[in-house]
Amino acid sequence: MMWHSYIIAASAILLSVDKSFNRRTQKTLAIFRDLIFMVTHLSSVTFKDLGLHPLLLKALESMNYQHATPIQAQTIPLLLDSKDVAGQAQTGTGKTNAFLLGVLDELLTLPATKDREPNEPRAIIIAPTRELVIQIYEDAKKLAEFTDLKMCVAYGGADYDKQREAILSGCDVLIGSAGRLIDYLKQNVYNFYSLDCVVLDEADRMFDLGFINDIRYLFRKMPPPEERLNMLFSATLSLKVKELAYEHMNHPEHIHIEAEKITADKVRQLLYYPSNTDKLPLLIGLIQKHAPEKAIIFTNTRHQAEQVWLCLKGNDYSAGLLTGDVPQKKRIRLLEDLKQGNIQILIATDVAARGLHITGVTHVFNYDLPDDAEDYVHRIGRTARAGAEGDAISFGGENNVINLPAIEEYIESTIPTADVTPDLLAEIKPSAKRDPARPRAQRGRGRGQQNNRNRVHHRNTEHRSAGNRDSGNRTSHHKGSDNRAKSDSDS
Model confidence at 91, in pLDDT bands (50, 70, 90)? Predict the structure, then answer.
């Protein structure tokens, strides 16, 4: 295709551009470069080809989205045909928009029952972390911009009464974390009487964080799987995740997007073997050498994260610290600061390894090799998103190099190595003083700080297209007067 040749030529020019351009010019070129790389990540399928609702197409067009990613091209047709989907895909592949488009199209084309109450959501989306809940909510608002659908959130660490009142005043799509969703359900803030769609995102992370009993509780309160459209997405479809899918879904179609293409093809991985005393000088030296536009540094513990953060502050870098003890409002502000370029570097424990969607992250530094091999993939997946390229630089330190064999076995490749040479070791200034008002970080593992909390729709089978949408033929029967009991002794 002629335009593709032009883009390849343009990318070659951009990649050789002189760094003497001013900051505004460099930022403009960086945006254009990301768009170029995004083209290679998209499929040949356009959203118009998929037969989505016209109001969704209008929203996609306003965001300049024309071509679907591979997982969107594979899952959306199944969802539009009212088939359950269990998808295996990493973050950064477009899976969030895949299930959001499926949910929103279902609600726009399937009429709600006449006796539905305002606080009876038609779709529930469950995510493992507050950050992911917020990001899904923001994406959903953009896609639903031209509709009358109302989005609500339910997650801990934020205004309890404000979220509660928003749901009571009217909610079509409820996006939340398991704990807060159960809390509101038991208080009859909402119910499942009008439920049409269910999404479980990052299912494997639910197991990791100990939320699976909460998830099963919510599923048991819902209508049977045959009476709703079900979606499950996970970075890995392990045996326990598959068992969950078979137990609470209606013969789901399995979609698999290869992780290797994300891990190896777009991320330039490199491994150093520093001594413990060389780790901070090497980190500062590499930051000086690479001059990342946006970077995330991962550590295994909160104590190490704070040490790195104070070192960066002492060496005049604008950096933020994201760990399990950071209040929710500050978390949101930190992520927004990184997105807007107010800070250059974010230091995080694995509480931030999943679900973060921050465009333009050019570098990920693994200050410690993670104890879990899967977390390595999730960490470096913060860069090279939407087809862009990125660098993932890891330290095989004295205390965690033992984790390397399991990581390389999991990614089925050997991470290239480089020597720690004297020119890479920076002369660093003393670390900044710790804020006395900040609670001292405990020496526990970052991920261990998480609280371990113990249709029968008669679908219209006619061809679905933008021009053939007689939504009146699609009805829901799971909320009939015979089985609609307004009190639930189990709630």
Answer: low
Per the CB < 8 A criterion, the answer to whether 30 and 15 are in contact is no
The torsion angles phi and psi of 301, rounded to 5 degrees, stand at -135, 160
Which residues are CB-contacts of 275 (< 8 A; sequence separation ≥ 6)?
A: 397, 398
- Would you call 44 helix, strand, or coil by DSSP? coil
Both tokens assigned to 318: 């604008």
Are 255 and 373 in contact, with CB atoms under 8 Å apart? no
- CB count within 10 Å of CB 341 equals 13
What is the tens place of the pLDDT at every residue in 403-437? 999 999 988 889 999 999 999 999 999 999 876 55
The CATH 3.40.50.300 domain(s) of the chain lie at 42-257, 260-448
Write out the CATH class of domain 42-257. alpha beta
Could you tell me the CA-to-CA distances from 308 to 299, 311, 312, 319, 444 in Å, in that order? 9, 5, 6, 10, 16
Q: What is the pLDDT of residues 161-193, one digit of tens each?
A: 999 999 999 999 999 999 999 999 999 999 999
Q: Give the Cα separation of 460 and 110 in Å (integer).
A: 9
Reported as a pLDDT band with limits 50, 70 and 90, residue 113 is confident
Beta-sheet pairing, 457-458 with 475-476: antiparallel
Beta bridge partners of 176: 126, 154
As a whole number of angstroms, the distance between CA 252 and CA 245 comes to: 7
For strands 390-395 and 267-272, give the pairing. Answer: parallel
Given a cut of 50, whether residue 67 has pLDDT beyond it is yes
Bigger pLDDT: 474 or 203? Answer: 203
Which alpha helices (DSSP H) does 93-202 contain, by range? 95-109, 130-143, 160-169, 178-186
* 261 has pLDDT over 70: no
**Predicted local confidence at residue 381, as pLDDT:** 81
In this structure, which amino acid lies at residue 144? A
Q: Average pLDDT of 101-127? A: 95
275: alpha, beta or left? (left if phi > 0; alpha if psi -120 to 50)? beta
Task: Using alpha carbons, select from 258, 228, 201 the residue that is nearest to residue 71.
Answer: 258
**What are the strands of the beta sheet with 267-272, ordered from one edge?**
267-272, 390-395, 363-366, 295-298, 345-348, 319-322
Pick the CATH number of 260-448 from 2.40.30.160, 1.25.40.10, 3.40.50.700, 3.40.50.300: 3.40.50.300
CA dihedral 38, 44, 45, 48 (to 10 degrees): 80
Look at residues 193, 60, 75 and name the one whose alpha carbon lies nearest to residue 485. 193
Given a contact cutoff of 8 angstroms between Cβ atoms, the answer to whether 211 and 128 are in contact is yes
